[in-house]
Design goal:
This protein is an all-alpha fold and 87 residues long. The protein has one domain (3-85). It is 84% helix and 0% strand. It has three helices and no strands. Helix 1 packs parallel to helix 3.
Length: 87
Amino acid sequence: MSVQDEFKTLSDKIKQYRDEARVQLHLARQDVKDEFNDLEQEWDKFRTRFDEVMNDASEASQEARQTAKKLGEDLKSGYKKIRDKMK
């Protein structure tokens, strides 16, 4: 799997969890809403890094790819956690 494919798959999964959490957010407790808002700031950082890696994957350093992947995995876990709390 190429770097672009790997990041695309990760981004798609984050989007799915994010969308599911957003749908349920209006019913959520305030602490969950606060957690979601914190993740939204991290989402913005991830999208910036993701775009950099996707647009120039051949020149993106291994460190930059690993950082973006770690941030993405953390986001995915965070959105999944929120989604699961609201079920």
